[in-house]
Amino acid sequence: MNSKQLHYFLVTVQKQSIAAAARELDVAQPAISQQLANLEREMGATLLVRSYKGVSLTQAGQVFAQHAETLMNQIHTTRVALQQLKTGQAGKVRLGMLPSINNVLSMALIEEVNRCYPDVQLEISTGPSYSVREWLEHNEIDIAITYEQDVTLNTMRCSGLINENMYLVVGTGAEKQTYASLAERQAIHFWELSDYELLIPSDKDALGKLVALYEKNTSVLLKHSKAYSGQLMTGLRQVMQGEGLMILPSSAIFHLEETGLVRALKIISPEMTRTVLMATSRTASPTDAMLKLADIVKQVVAAEQQSGHWRGELCFSPAPMTPERRQSHFA
Q1: Which family does it belong to (predicted)?
Q2: Which of 20, 132, 175, 225 is least surrounded by CB atoms within 10 angstroms?
Q3: Which residues pair with 167 in a beta bridge?
Q4: How big is the CA angle at 278 (ends 56 and 150), to the nearest 5 degrees?
Q5: Under CATH, what is the fold of the domain 3-85?
Protein backbone atom coordinates (compact mmCIF):
# COMPACT_ATOMS: atom_id res chain seq x y z
CA MET A 1 0.00 0.00 0.00
CA ASN A 2 1.32 3.47 -0.89
CA SER A 3 0.17 7.09 -0.78
CA LYS A 4 -0.78 7.10 -4.46
CA GLN A 5 -3.22 4.23 -3.90
CA LEU A 6 -4.70 5.99 -0.87
CA HIS A 7 -5.07 9.25 -2.80
CA TYR A 8 -6.72 7.55 -5.78
CA PHE A 9 -9.06 5.67 -3.44
CA LEU A 10 -10.15 8.80 -1.53
CA VAL A 11 -10.73 10.85 -4.68
CA THR A 12 -12.75 8.01 -6.21
CA VAL A 13 -14.88 7.83 -3.06
CA GLN A 14 -15.36 11.61 -3.09
CA LYS A 15 -16.34 11.67 -6.78
CA GLN A 16 -18.34 8.41 -6.53
CA SER A 17 -16.98 7.44 -9.93
CA ILE A 18 -13.71 6.12 -11.32
CA ALA A 19 -14.24 8.12 -14.51
CA ALA A 20 -14.83 11.33 -12.52
CA ALA A 21 -11.76 10.61 -10.39
CA ALA A 22 -9.70 10.13 -13.55
CA ARG A 23 -10.80 13.56 -14.80
CA GLU A 24 -10.08 15.18 -11.44
CA LEU A 25 -6.62 13.60 -11.16
CA ASP A 26 -5.83 13.90 -14.89
CA VAL A 27 -4.91 10.22 -14.90
CA ALA A 28 -6.02 7.48 -17.29
CA GLN A 29 -9.03 5.58 -15.98
CA PRO A 30 -7.39 2.11 -16.36
CA ALA A 31 -4.46 3.29 -14.21
CA ILE A 32 -6.83 4.20 -11.38
CA SER A 33 -8.73 0.94 -11.73
CA GLN A 34 -5.45 -1.00 -11.54
CA GLN A 35 -4.30 0.84 -8.42
CA LEU A 36 -7.66 0.23 -6.72
CA ALA A 37 -7.56 -3.45 -7.63
CA ASN A 38 -4.01 -3.74 -6.22
CA LEU A 39 -5.15 -2.01 -3.04
CA GLU A 40 -8.08 -4.39 -2.56
CA ARG A 41 -5.85 -7.37 -3.22
CA GLU A 42 -3.33 -6.18 -0.63
CA MET A 43 -6.06 -5.46 1.95
CA GLY A 44 -7.73 -8.80 1.28
CA ALA A 45 -11.16 -7.17 1.05
CA THR A 46 -13.53 -5.63 -1.47
CA LEU A 47 -13.61 -1.90 -0.74
CA LEU A 48 -15.78 -0.61 -3.59
CA VAL A 49 -18.90 -1.85 -5.34
CA ARG A 50 -18.77 -0.90 -9.02
CA SER A 51 -21.92 -0.36 -11.10
CA TYR A 52 -23.07 1.63 -14.12
CA LYS A 53 -24.03 4.42 -11.69
CA GLY A 54 -20.49 4.67 -10.31
CA VAL A 55 -18.94 3.28 -7.14
CA SER A 56 -20.05 2.94 -3.52
CA LEU A 57 -18.28 1.79 -0.39
CA THR A 58 -18.70 -1.67 1.06
CA GLN A 59 -18.74 -2.07 4.83
CA ALA A 60 -15.03 -2.85 4.68
CA GLY A 61 -14.55 0.16 2.45
CA GLN A 62 -16.21 2.47 4.99
CA VAL A 63 -13.80 1.31 7.70
CA PHE A 64 -10.82 1.60 5.35
CA ALA A 65 -11.84 5.11 4.18
CA GLN A 66 -11.66 6.46 7.75
CA HIS A 67 -8.17 5.07 8.25
CA ALA A 68 -7.06 6.13 4.76
CA GLU A 69 -7.99 9.75 5.46
CA THR A 70 -6.07 9.64 8.74
CA LEU A 71 -3.03 8.17 7.01
CA MET A 72 -3.12 10.82 4.27
CA ASN A 73 -3.35 13.56 6.91
CA GLN A 74 -0.30 12.13 8.65
CA ILE A 75 1.64 11.85 5.40
CA HIS A 76 0.79 15.45 4.48
CA THR A 77 1.72 16.72 7.95
CA THR A 78 5.05 14.91 7.76
CA ARG A 79 5.81 16.35 4.33
CA VAL A 80 4.90 19.85 5.48
CA ALA A 81 7.08 19.53 8.57
CA LEU A 82 10.05 18.33 6.52
CA GLN A 83 9.54 21.06 3.93
CA GLN A 84 9.33 23.69 6.65
CA LEU A 85 12.51 22.35 8.21
CA LYS A 86 14.21 22.51 4.82
CA THR A 87 13.07 26.04 3.98
CA GLY A 88 13.23 27.46 7.47
CA GLN A 89 9.65 28.73 7.16
CA ALA A 90 8.01 26.87 10.03
CA GLY A 91 5.64 29.80 10.51
CA LYS A 92 4.50 30.32 6.94
CA VAL A 93 0.75 30.33 6.22
CA ARG A 94 -0.76 30.73 2.75
CA LEU A 95 -4.16 32.43 2.84
CA GLY A 96 -6.57 32.74 -0.09
CA MET A 97 -9.58 35.04 -0.29
CA LEU A 98 -11.84 36.97 -2.64
CA PRO A 99 -11.24 40.64 -3.58
CA SER A 100 -14.26 41.86 -1.57
CA ILE A 101 -12.98 40.06 1.53
CA ASN A 102 -9.41 41.15 0.90
CA ASN A 103 -10.62 44.75 0.81
CA VAL A 104 -11.82 44.62 4.41
CA LEU A 105 -9.44 42.08 5.98
CA SER A 106 -5.97 42.10 4.46
CA MET A 107 -4.48 45.25 5.99
CA ALA A 108 -5.85 44.51 9.46
CA LEU A 109 -4.69 40.88 9.25
CA ILE A 110 -1.16 41.88 8.26
CA GLU A 111 -1.04 44.43 11.08
CA GLU A 112 -2.31 41.98 13.71
CA VAL A 113 -0.07 39.11 12.59
CA ASN A 114 2.99 41.36 12.68
CA ARG A 115 2.01 42.62 16.12
CA CYS A 116 0.92 39.36 17.79
CA TYR A 117 2.90 36.67 15.94
CA PRO A 118 5.97 38.18 14.23
CA ASP A 119 7.28 34.63 13.69
CA VAL A 120 4.35 33.84 11.36
CA GLN A 121 4.96 34.61 7.69
CA LEU A 122 1.62 35.46 6.03
CA GLU A 123 1.22 35.04 2.26
CA ILE A 124 -2.10 36.30 0.83
CA SER A 125 -3.48 35.33 -2.59
CA THR A 126 -6.62 36.95 -4.03
CA GLY A 127 -8.89 35.61 -6.76
CA PRO A 128 -12.45 34.64 -7.72
CA SER A 129 -14.25 32.12 -5.52
CA TYR A 130 -13.72 29.18 -7.87
CA SER A 131 -9.98 29.86 -8.00
CA VAL A 132 -9.76 30.03 -4.19
CA ARG A 133 -11.55 26.68 -3.98
CA GLU A 134 -9.18 25.11 -6.51
CA TRP A 135 -6.13 26.50 -4.68
CA LEU A 136 -7.26 24.82 -1.48
CA GLU A 137 -8.11 21.55 -3.23
CA HIS A 138 -4.65 21.46 -4.83
CA ASN A 139 -2.79 22.44 -1.64
CA GLU A 140 -1.67 25.78 -3.07
CA ILE A 141 -3.04 27.59 0.01
CA ASP A 142 -3.49 26.50 3.63
CA ILE A 143 -6.62 28.48 4.54
CA ALA A 144 -9.42 29.81 2.35
CA ILE A 145 -11.85 32.59 3.29
CA THR A 146 -14.70 32.16 0.87
CA TYR A 147 -18.45 31.78 0.48
CA GLU A 148 -20.79 28.90 1.28
CA GLN A 149 -21.58 28.53 -2.44
CA ASP A 150 -18.00 27.47 -3.13
CA VAL A 151 -17.08 24.98 -0.41
CA THR A 152 -17.15 21.19 -0.51
CA LEU A 153 -17.96 19.94 2.98
CA ASN A 154 -16.72 16.39 2.44
CA THR A 155 -13.22 17.65 1.55
CA MET A 156 -13.04 20.83 3.64
CA ARG A 157 -13.23 21.70 7.31
CA CYS A 158 -15.30 24.88 7.57
CA SER A 159 -15.92 27.47 10.25
CA GLY A 160 -18.53 30.21 9.83
CA LEU A 161 -17.34 33.80 10.09
CA ILE A 162 -20.19 36.17 9.16
CA ASN A 163 -23.62 36.15 7.53
CA GLU A 164 -23.11 39.31 5.50
CA ASN A 165 -25.87 41.56 4.22
CA MET A 166 -25.99 42.28 0.50
CA TYR A 167 -26.55 45.73 -0.98
CA LEU A 168 -27.41 47.39 -4.26
CA VAL A 169 -24.48 49.72 -4.96
CA VAL A 170 -25.06 52.94 -6.93
CA GLY A 171 -22.59 55.68 -7.84
CA THR A 172 -23.52 58.98 -6.16
CA GLY A 173 -22.76 60.96 -9.31
CA ALA A 174 -25.12 58.78 -11.31
CA GLU A 175 -27.98 59.34 -8.82
CA LYS A 176 -28.55 62.80 -10.23
CA GLN A 177 -29.35 61.37 -13.63
CA THR A 178 -30.11 57.73 -14.41
CA TYR A 179 -30.71 56.61 -10.83
CA ALA A 180 -32.30 59.74 -9.35
CA SER A 181 -35.15 57.63 -7.87
CA LEU A 182 -32.65 55.85 -5.61
CA ALA A 183 -31.01 58.98 -4.20
CA GLU A 184 -32.97 59.14 -0.91
CA ARG A 185 -33.54 55.44 -0.33
CA GLN A 186 -31.86 53.25 2.28
CA ALA A 187 -33.29 49.89 1.19
CA ILE A 188 -34.75 48.22 -1.89
CA HIS A 189 -36.98 45.19 -2.39
CA PHE A 190 -35.45 42.29 -4.28
CA TRP A 191 -38.17 42.39 -6.95
CA GLU A 192 -37.33 46.05 -7.67
CA LEU A 193 -33.84 45.05 -8.79
CA SER A 194 -35.37 43.79 -12.03
CA ASP A 195 -35.86 47.44 -13.07
CA TYR A 196 -32.10 48.09 -13.32
CA GLU A 197 -29.14 46.96 -15.39
CA LEU A 198 -26.85 44.98 -13.10
CA LEU A 199 -23.18 44.02 -13.35
CA ILE A 200 -23.09 40.39 -12.17
CA PRO A 201 -20.45 37.69 -12.73
CA SER A 202 -21.34 34.34 -14.30
CA ASP A 203 -22.75 31.52 -12.18
CA LYS A 204 -19.26 30.03 -12.06
CA ASP A 205 -18.57 32.63 -9.38
CA ALA A 206 -20.09 32.46 -5.87
CA LEU A 207 -21.92 35.78 -6.35
CA GLY A 208 -23.38 34.59 -9.65
CA LYS A 209 -24.57 31.41 -7.91
CA LEU A 210 -26.14 33.45 -5.12
CA VAL A 211 -28.03 35.70 -7.53
CA ALA A 212 -29.26 32.66 -9.49
CA LEU A 213 -30.51 31.08 -6.24
CA TYR A 214 -32.48 34.19 -5.27
CA GLU A 215 -33.90 34.48 -8.79
CA LYS A 216 -35.08 30.87 -8.56
CA ASN A 217 -36.55 31.23 -5.06
CA THR A 218 -38.36 34.51 -5.82
CA SER A 219 -39.22 33.91 -9.50
CA VAL A 220 -37.77 37.36 -10.20
CA LEU A 221 -35.47 37.56 -13.22
CA LEU A 222 -32.81 40.25 -13.05
CA LYS A 223 -31.10 42.07 -15.88
CA HIS A 224 -27.45 41.07 -15.99
CA SER A 225 -26.56 41.02 -19.67
CA LYS A 226 -24.52 44.22 -19.45
CA ALA A 227 -20.82 43.77 -20.30
CA TYR A 228 -18.81 43.13 -17.14
CA SER A 229 -15.19 42.00 -16.81
CA GLY A 230 -15.81 40.07 -13.59
CA GLN A 231 -13.17 42.20 -11.83
CA LEU A 232 -14.42 43.97 -8.71
CA MET A 233 -12.48 47.21 -9.16
CA THR A 234 -13.45 47.49 -12.83
CA GLY A 235 -17.08 46.92 -11.94
CA LEU A 236 -17.00 49.59 -9.26
CA ARG A 237 -15.52 52.06 -11.74
CA GLN A 238 -18.45 51.29 -14.06
CA VAL A 239 -20.87 51.88 -11.18
CA MET A 240 -19.28 55.23 -10.31
CA GLN A 241 -19.55 56.25 -13.98
CA GLY A 242 -23.24 55.37 -14.04
CA GLU A 243 -22.85 52.38 -16.38
CA GLY A 244 -24.80 49.98 -14.17
CA LEU A 245 -25.35 48.82 -10.59
CA MET A 246 -23.80 46.02 -8.56
CA ILE A 247 -24.92 43.66 -5.80
CA LEU A 248 -22.16 43.53 -3.16
CA PRO A 249 -21.51 43.22 0.56
CA SER A 250 -20.36 46.26 2.54
CA SER A 251 -16.88 44.70 2.82
CA ALA A 252 -16.34 45.48 -0.86
CA ILE A 253 -17.38 49.13 -0.81
CA PHE A 254 -17.14 50.60 2.72
CA HIS A 255 -14.09 52.68 1.72
CA LEU A 256 -16.00 54.16 -1.23
CA GLU A 257 -19.01 54.86 1.00
CA GLU A 258 -16.80 56.75 3.44
CA THR A 259 -15.52 58.99 0.65
CA GLY A 260 -19.03 59.54 -0.73
CA LEU A 261 -18.39 57.92 -4.12
CA VAL A 262 -21.10 55.26 -3.79
CA ARG A 263 -24.21 54.55 -1.75
CA ALA A 264 -25.48 51.16 -0.64
CA LEU A 265 -29.16 50.21 -0.43
CA LYS A 266 -29.86 47.15 1.70
CA ILE A 267 -31.69 44.44 -0.25
CA ILE A 268 -34.83 43.30 1.56
CA SER A 269 -38.04 41.27 1.00
CA PRO A 270 -36.39 38.85 1.01
CA GLU A 271 -33.29 40.07 2.81
CA MET A 272 -30.32 39.03 0.72
CA THR A 273 -27.45 37.49 2.70
CA ARG A 274 -24.63 35.01 2.27
CA THR A 275 -22.31 33.21 4.67
CA VAL A 276 -18.55 33.70 4.67
CA LEU A 277 -16.55 30.67 5.82
CA MET A 278 -12.98 29.92 6.77
CA ALA A 279 -11.97 26.57 5.27
CA THR A 280 -9.03 24.17 5.41
CA SER A 281 -8.47 20.88 3.61
CA ARG A 282 -9.51 17.69 5.40
CA THR A 283 -6.37 16.03 4.05
CA ALA A 284 -4.11 18.47 5.91
CA SER A 285 -3.53 18.72 9.64
CA PRO A 286 -3.43 22.34 10.87
CA THR A 287 -0.02 23.65 11.91
CA ASP A 288 0.53 25.86 14.93
CA ALA A 289 0.91 28.86 12.61
CA MET A 290 -2.43 28.05 10.94
CA LEU A 291 -4.18 27.90 14.30
CA LYS A 292 -2.66 31.25 15.27
CA LEU A 293 -3.81 32.83 12.03
CA ALA A 294 -7.33 31.37 12.35
CA ASP A 295 -7.60 33.05 15.76
CA ILE A 296 -6.43 36.37 14.32
CA VAL A 297 -8.91 36.07 11.41
CA LYS A 298 -11.85 35.77 13.81
CA GLN A 299 -10.63 38.70 15.89
CA VAL A 300 -10.29 40.91 12.82
CA VAL A 301 -13.66 39.84 11.37
CA ALA A 302 -15.34 40.71 14.69
CA ALA A 303 -13.58 44.10 14.77
CA GLU A 304 -14.57 44.98 11.19
CA GLN A 305 -18.16 43.90 11.85
CA GLN A 306 -18.28 46.07 14.98
CA SER A 307 -16.87 49.04 13.08
CA GLY A 308 -19.62 48.75 10.44
CA HIS A 309 -17.17 48.05 7.66
CA TRP A 310 -18.55 44.51 7.34
CA ARG A 311 -22.28 44.58 8.02
CA GLY A 312 -23.99 41.35 8.98
CA GLU A 313 -24.31 38.84 11.82
CA LEU A 314 -21.25 37.06 13.23
CA CYS A 315 -21.30 33.25 13.15
CA PHE A 316 -19.29 33.00 16.38
CA SER A 317 -19.05 34.65 19.77
CA PRO A 318 -16.10 37.05 19.64
CA ALA A 319 -13.50 36.89 22.40
CA PRO A 320 -13.23 39.97 24.62
CA MET A 321 -11.00 42.59 23.03
CA THR A 322 -8.38 44.52 24.98
CA PRO A 323 -8.36 48.32 24.63
CA GLU A 324 -5.04 48.05 22.80
CA ARG A 325 -6.46 45.63 20.26
CA ARG A 326 -9.64 47.65 19.78
CA GLN A 327 -7.57 50.76 19.16
CA SER A 328 -5.40 48.98 16.60
CA HIS A 329 -8.51 47.86 14.69
CA PHE A 330 -10.41 51.12 14.68
CA ALA A 331 -7.64 53.71 14.48
Answers
A1: Belongs to the LysR transcriptional regulatory family.
A2: 225
A3: 248, 266
A4: 55
A5: Arc Repressor Mutant, subunit A (1.10.10)
Q: Is residue 159 helix, strand or coil?
A: strand
Burial 10-23 (b: 16+ CB within 10 A, else e): bbbbbbebbebbbe
Question: So what's the pLDDT on residue 175?
Answer: 63
Query: Helix, strand or coil for residue 105?
Result: helix
Helix (H) or strand (E) holding 264: strand 262-268
- Burial of residue 177 (CB within 10 Å: 0-12, 13-18, 19+) is exposed
Nearest to 97 by CA among 121, 123, 126: 126
**Domains of the chain: which residue ranges?**
3-85, 89-162+276-313, 163-274
SS3 321: coil
CA distance linking residue 18 with residue 37, whole number of Å: 12
**Cα–Cα distance, 329 to 331 (Å, whole number):** 6
Which amino acid, one-letter code, is at 33? S
pLDDT at 191: 96
Identify the CA nearest to 282 among candidates 154, 160, 161.
154
Average pLDDT over residues 57-83: 82
The pLDDT tens digits of the residues spanning 100-143 come to 999 999 999 999 999 999 888 999 999 999 999 999 988 899 99
